Amino acid sequence: MEKYGYKFSFGPWNIHEGADPFGPPVRPSISFDQKLEAYQRLGFDAVQFHDDDAIPDLDDKSPDQIVKEARALKQRLDAAGLVAEFVAPRLWEHPITVDGAYTSNDPKARAYAIERSHKTLDIANTLETGFVVLWFAREGTYQREAKDAARAVDLLAEALDDMLAYAPNMRIAIEPKPNEPMDISYIPTIGHAVALGYKTRAPERCGVLVESAHAVLAGLDPADEMAFGLAYDKLWSVHLNDQNGLKFDQDRAFGSVNLRRAFDQVLVLDDNRFYEKGIVGLDVKAVRTQKPEVAEKHLINSRDIFLWLVERARSLDRKVMQQCIDARDYEELDRLILEHLMTRG
Length: 345
Known about the structure:
Elements: E1 8-10, H1 32-42, E2 46-50, H2 51-54, H3 63-80, E3 83-88, H4 107-126, E4 131-135, E5 140-141, H5 149-166, E6 171-175, E7 184-185, H6 190-198, E8 206-211, H7 212-217, H8 222-231, E9 235-240, H9 259-271, E10 280-282, H10 297-315, H11 318-326, H12 330-341
Parallel strand pairs: 1-2, 1-10, 2-3, 4-6, 6-8, 8-9, 9-10
Antiparallel strand pairs: 5-7
Helix pairs in contact: 3-4, 4-5, 8-9, 9-10, 11-12
């Protein structure tokens, strides 16, 4: 299938054992070697990494050990014809970060978060990605009175400033989410993320990553969140998936719940030539009921749906579309879009 100039990535966690917030795994674990083979076999271009996806047991290793192992990983990626899209610090699983990492009330937790972030930056530098993503998973609270929200924003900016100074050639993208695992997130939307970047010492190296499901969970449209980032030239990556309502983060296959919402995301990305700006990342997991032997189809389907919708976006009759807009005949515009989506060829 033609890729229309796009490159695609996913994270190793997207080949998933099927656990959810309410039940244990239902599929066997797959080794990283097997997952690396799947990237090649499925025709993907890049790998998304958490820091401990790249270097297991990261907290128990010295900086020299981390760099040595990262060099070995870079050789494996090179041999497989793959690149690292980004590295992200996993700051939400250590017991010390139960009340947050960068915004914890505990200065020891904040110090841990900074040290771990430095390790992430070392890994990213060694993998030659030049790109780090921050998901502020526990940067929030369950009780608003438990933290000073204004101070929390300052603490986040200070952490970003430290990272920007530590790695002068690194770009950092913030991936916002309105909730989960924390009830209340301090950076819930792309607007918040863009604003936080402008509070740092190097706003030109601070951007954003839009995840479709996170926008839906905020009650927003993912295409509009992408457009906002594009308007500021800050949309540096996307995590495409789908979401069936305001539930826990489902990471459904892209376009599997709301095809028109998926089309609008593709339309805004393609019209703004995102294929020249970044890699299309998938953050999708096979549904829990999927058998192990066919638990990669969500990746293929998500990429193929994206590419089918690129074709639909590029073959859309823009002249007729503009005529509908000029006439303020939005019912006819509705029909045009729906008819185009339901017609192949």
